[in-house]
Structure formats: structure tokens, C-alpha cells
């Protein structure tokens, strides 16, 4: 019989893996311990303004986060557990939580970006003083880094080379099943009132984004099976208006409400039922881009955040942020971002190029505004794409210039998108 003092208790730290299915941290914690304490820590820093003058997380993402946590808590309660919610500085709050529950181990998602890594180190140091060990697991990507045919430090400098060396060689690991029963101490009901995130819904938004894995799977069912929009993805993915031109999975992927492997598995099922084509392949191809930026962050780290030689004039930056540049294609995209927290991939490429190449503003200010504003903000995808477009990343073509007039003519030939946002 296990006595209380012998009980193995683990903390499971939910960060950007807000799901029960395909969650290695949770699965391993359950296998190796008697009880687990699932928790989320709202980092004070998330609500603060950074040196770039923007919030780390704006209202769109906070609202999405709140909904995601509510859904996670419901799922945990159905399995006999619940979500502990704490707020403050994680390096202080998490060791206190370990003391409260007498935990010996913490299970957490492995970080790769500088700020997140530094926080992870601080938490590890704090817990080691309590003899609480830390185990980390990769939760973000399609491919596991140890399955790559090269160490991350030797990641190819260009995406096509990465794709060539991996896509037919690396096997995507199977999805971890959702645990049926989660053994936990009694956990009080969730109170998220501290997260104030009211946003006004704009009827022109591409989609009503609701956080949580239930909504993520509903979107997948809709995009794959109800509309079969997936079968046309390659031809529509550069669109600007409406919910079906692309999957809109990014916000759920960024919060981890759904994993890249779950989507991959579902594409494979879909291909068996309806047949695979270049579009079904292309969704996986885009997930490979996402992986690539994840591995690039691990390899390049601080290089992504380096200052550029461009200026940081707030007056010019404000014109871009406030959608008052006078370039209607740019202003329409920036209005959409401001009012909905989302922008298409075509739009993001254009506004980023415009800020760096036409307005000559330091790209990091643009990336920081995106960080505040995007509902789907992901540290690797955001800073990686910005660095890539600014020529700071590892692509040999240093200047990725987008001629916005040509782009508008090609992708918004009737001006429908510009009309929608600028009236
Ligand atoms: C300057 C800039 C900043 C960006 N910031 C982010 C960000 O913070 N978070 C984010 O998720 N994406 C970011 N992207 C990538 C991309 O624009 C979005 O993932 C995409 O528009 C989201 O819409 P979707 O889910 O409908 O994409 P789909 O076209 O349906 O693609 C499917 C999935 O593939 C992944 N993907 C597609 N394109 C890219 C790409 N270029 N880089 C990385 N992953 C990709 C996404 O996870 C996406 O959900 C950025 C792109 C640029 C140019």
C-alpha cells in the first residue's frame, strides 16, 4: 500500500499545449506518478508593455486563451481532475505550488526561444532547491527533433533543403491518446476573472475564433469533412476574404489546442476516404514550414531578435499600425489585424515587407506589434517569418521585396478585400 509520504506527485505545466490528446507531458506524468496536478500560470509579463511599446498579449489572444483554459478545465474535470490556475512570476509561483502539493517532479513543454528558455531555466533552478526535478518534452512540431537526420545545430540554411532531407525520411510519431482518467488531488473550481479580455466582434472577421480543443476539432471537421475545402487548399490559400480560403488552424495550433500531429493524422485519414491531391499535400507542406521556423529558433536563437540598421521612428510606425499609410492594400490588411486579430498569410507578407523595405522601419517593431495583436501569435512562426522577410533569417536571398501594387492587382483584382475593410 502507498502511504501519503511515498505518493509520487507531479505538476503538469500547461503552456502552449492546452490539450489533453497528444500531450506527452501529461501522458508521461500519469504513467510515472500516483497523482498529477495540472496547472496554468499566467505570467505577469504577458500583460505588460515591452520595450517596443506594445503589450505582449493583446485582447484577442487573451480572450482566446481564457476560452482555451475553460475548455481544458472542463476536459480535465470530465477525467476526474481539474486545472489549477495561478498568476504572477512563474519562477516564484511554481516552486510555491510544488510545496503546496508536495510534488517531486514537474513535466513541461520544452522551450526553444530565448525568453521562454530563460524562464524555464529560472523555474528549474527554483525547483531544484526543493529537490523537485523537471522533465521537458517537445509538444509543438510535426517532427521530433531527435528523429531528424541531422542535429538541430546543423539545420539546413534554406527551407527546401530541410524539406528534401526530411519529408520522405522522417516518420511522424503517433498521437498520444487522450487519458480517460486523471488521478489528482481535489482541485477547486476554475476562476479566470483576472483575465479581462473583452473584444468587440467585427462581422467582417474571417471566422469567429473560439479557444479550446473542442472548437479546434469542430473547425477541422468543418474544413475537412463538411465543406471539403481541404481538397482545394492549394488553389485558395492565397485568398484574403472569408473562412474557407485557408484552414485558419493557426490560433489553435499556437495555443496548442490541437497538435500538428493530430492534423497530420487527420489529413492521412481524409486522403484514404476522399483521395489525396496536391492540396492535401500542401497543408502538410505548410506545417513543415511551421516546423522549420521552430527548429530555426532553436538553432538561431538570439540572432532573430537583433537590431537592424533601419530606424525606429514612432511617427512612421504609427502610420502603419493605425492603417494610415495611404497604401490601400496595406491599410486594408492592417485594419483587419487591428479589428480582428487576424490577417491572411498574403497580407502578412506584404505588410511586413512594406514596413521594412518601403517605410524602412526596424522589423522588430513590426514583429512586436504582431505579437500583441495576433490571435495566433507563436514565437517561432512570428519572429521567424519577420526575420526571414527582413533578410535576417537564414535565407540566402537577403531582400524579399513585395511590390504591393502588383500584389494587390494579383490577389485583390476587383478590390473586394480593400473595399471590405476601407469601405
Ligand atoms: C510576418 C509574418 C508573421 C507571421 N506570424 C505568425 C504567427 O505568429 N503565428 C502563426 O501561426 N503564423 C504566423 N505566420 C504564418 C502564416 O501567415 C499563418 O500561419 C497563417 O496565415 C495562418 O492562417 P491559416 O491557419 O489559415 O494557414 P494555412 O494556410 O491554412 O496553413 C496551415 C498551417 O500551416 C502553418 N503555416 C502556414 N504558413 C506558415 C508560415 N509562413 N510560417 C509558419 N507556419 C505556417 C500554420 O500553422 C497554419 O495554421 C506569419 C507569417 C508572416 C509572413
From TrEMBL:
<keyword id="KW-0274">FAD</keyword>
<dbReference type="GO" id="GO:0000719">
    <property type="term" value="P:photoreactive repair"/>
</dbReference>
<keyword id="KW-0285">Flavoprotein</keyword>
<feature type="binding site">
    <location>
        <begin position="376"/>
        <end position="378"/>
    </location>
    <ligand>
        <name>FAD</name>
    </ligand>
</feature>
<dbReference type="InterPro" id="IPR005101">
    <property type="entry name" value="Cryptochr/Photolyase_FAD-bd"/>
</dbReference>
<comment type="similarity">
    <text>Belongs to the DNA photolyase class-1 family.</text>
</comment>
<keyword id="KW-0157">Chromophore</keyword>
<dbReference type="InterPro" id="IPR014133">
    <property type="entry name" value="Cry_DASH"/>
</dbReference>
<dbReference type="Pfam" id="PF00875">
    <property type="entry name" value="DNA_photolyase"/>
</dbReference>
<keyword id="KW-0456">Lyase</keyword>
<dbReference type="InterPro" id="IPR014729">
    <property type="entry name" value="Rossmann-like_a/b/a_fold"/>
</dbReference>
<dbReference type="GO" id="GO:0003904">
    <property type="term" value="F:deoxyribodipyrimidine photo-lyase activity"/>
</dbReference>
<comment type="function">
    <text>May have a photoreceptor function.</text>
</comment>
<dbReference type="InterPro" id="IPR002081">
    <property type="entry name" value="Cryptochrome/DNA_photolyase_1"/>
</dbReference>
<feature type="domain" description="Photolyase/cryptochrome alpha/beta">
    <location>
        <begin position="8"/>
        <end position="142"/>
    </location>
</feature>
<dbReference type="Pfam" id="PF03441">
    <property type="entry name" value="FAD_binding_7"/>
</dbReference>
<dbReference type="InterPro" id="IPR006050">
    <property type="entry name" value="DNA_photolyase_N"/>
</dbReference>
<feature type="binding site">
    <location>
        <begin position="246"/>
        <end position="250"/>
    </location>
    <ligand>
        <name>FAD</name>
    </ligand>
</feature>
<dbReference type="GO" id="GO:0003677">
    <property type="term" value="F:DNA binding"/>
</dbReference>
<dbReference type="GO" id="GO:0071949">
    <property type="term" value="F:FAD binding"/>
</dbReference>
<dbReference type="InterPro" id="IPR036155">
    <property type="entry name" value="Crypto/Photolyase_N_sf"/>
</dbReference>
<dbReference type="InterPro" id="IPR036134">
    <property type="entry name" value="Crypto/Photolyase_FAD-like_sf"/>
</dbReference>
<feature type="binding site">
    <location>
        <begin position="286"/>
        <end position="293"/>
    </location>
    <ligand>
        <name>FAD</name>
    </ligand>
</feature>
<protein>
    <recommendedName>
        <fullName>Cryptochrome DASH</fullName>
    </recommendedName>
</protein>
<feature type="binding site">
    <location>
        <position position="233"/>
    </location>
    <ligand>
        <name>FAD</name>
    </ligand>
</feature>
Amino acid at each position: 500500500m502507498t502511504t501519503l509520504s511515498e505518493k509520487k506527485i507531479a505538476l503538469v505545466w500547461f503552456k502552449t499545449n492546452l490539450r489533453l490528446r497528444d500531450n506527452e507531458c501529461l501522458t508521461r506524468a500519469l504513467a510515472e506518478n500516483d497523482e498529477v496536478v495540472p496547472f496554468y500560470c499566467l505570467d505577469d509579463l504577458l500583460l505588460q508593455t515591452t520595450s517596443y511599446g506594445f503589450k505582449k498579449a493583446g485582447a484577442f489572444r487573451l480572450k482566446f486563451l481564457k476560452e482555451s483554459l475553460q475548455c481544458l478545465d472542463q476536459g480535465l474535470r470530465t477525467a476526474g481532475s481539474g486545472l489549477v490556475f495561478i498568476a504572477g512570476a512563474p519562477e516564484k509561483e511554481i516552486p510555491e505550488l510544488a510545496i503546496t502539493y508536495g510534488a517531486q517532479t514537474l513535466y513541461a513543454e520544452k522551450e526553444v526561444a530565448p525568453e521562454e528558455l530563460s524562464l524555464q531555466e529560472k523555474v528549474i533552478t527554483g525547483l531544484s532547491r526543493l529537490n523537485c526535478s523537471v522533465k521537458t518534452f517537445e509538444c509543438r512540431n510535426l517532427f521530433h527533433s531527435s528523429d531528424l537526420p541531422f542535429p538541430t545545430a546543423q539545420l539546413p540554411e534554406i527551407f527546401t533543403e530541410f524539406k528534401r532531407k526530411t519529408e520522405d525520411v522522417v516518420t511522424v510519431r503517433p498521437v498520444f491518446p487522450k487519458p480517460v482518467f486523471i488521478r489528482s488531488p481535489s482541485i477547486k473550481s476554475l476562476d479566470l476573472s483576472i483575465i479581462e479580455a473583452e473584444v468587440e466582434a467585427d462581422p467582417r472577421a474571417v471566422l469567429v475564433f473560439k479557444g479550446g480543443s473542442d472548437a479546434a476539432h469542430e473547425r477541422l471537421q468543418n474544413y475537412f469533412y463538411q465543406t471539403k475545402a481541404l481538397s482545394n487548399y492549394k488553389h485558395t490559400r492565397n485568398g484574403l476574404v472569408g473562412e474557407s480560403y485557408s484552414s485558419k488552424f493557426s490560433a489553435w495550433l499556437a495555443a496548442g489546442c490541437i497538435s500538428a500531429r493530430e492534423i497530420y493524422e487527420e489529413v492521412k485519414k481524409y486522403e484514404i476516404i476522399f483521395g489525396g491531391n496536391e492540396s492535401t499535400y500542401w497543408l502538410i507542406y505548410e506545417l513543415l514550414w511551421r516546423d522549420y521556423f521552430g527548429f530555426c529558433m532553436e538553432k538561431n536563437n538570439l540572432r532573430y531578435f537583433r537590431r537592424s540598421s533601419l530606424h525606429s521612428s514612432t511617427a512612421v510606425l504609427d502610420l502603419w499600425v493605425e492603417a494610415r499609410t495611404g497604401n490601400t492594400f496595406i491599410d486594408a490588411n492592417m485594419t483587419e489585424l487591428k479589428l480582428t486579430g487576424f490577417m491572411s498569410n498574403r497580407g502578412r507578407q506584404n505588410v511586413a515587407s512594406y514596413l521594412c523595405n518601403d517605410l524602412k522601419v526596424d522589423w522588430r517593431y513590426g514583429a512586436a506589434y504582431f505579437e500583441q495583436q495576433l490571435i495566433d501569435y507563436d514565437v517561432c512562426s512570428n519572429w521567424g517569418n519577420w526575420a526571414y522577410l527582413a533578410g535576417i533569417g537564414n535565407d540566402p536571398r537577403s531582400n524579399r521585396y513585395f511590390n504591393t501594387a502588383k500584389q494587390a492587382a494579383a490577389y485583390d483584382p476587383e478590390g473586394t478585400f480593400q473595399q471590405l475593410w476601407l469601405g
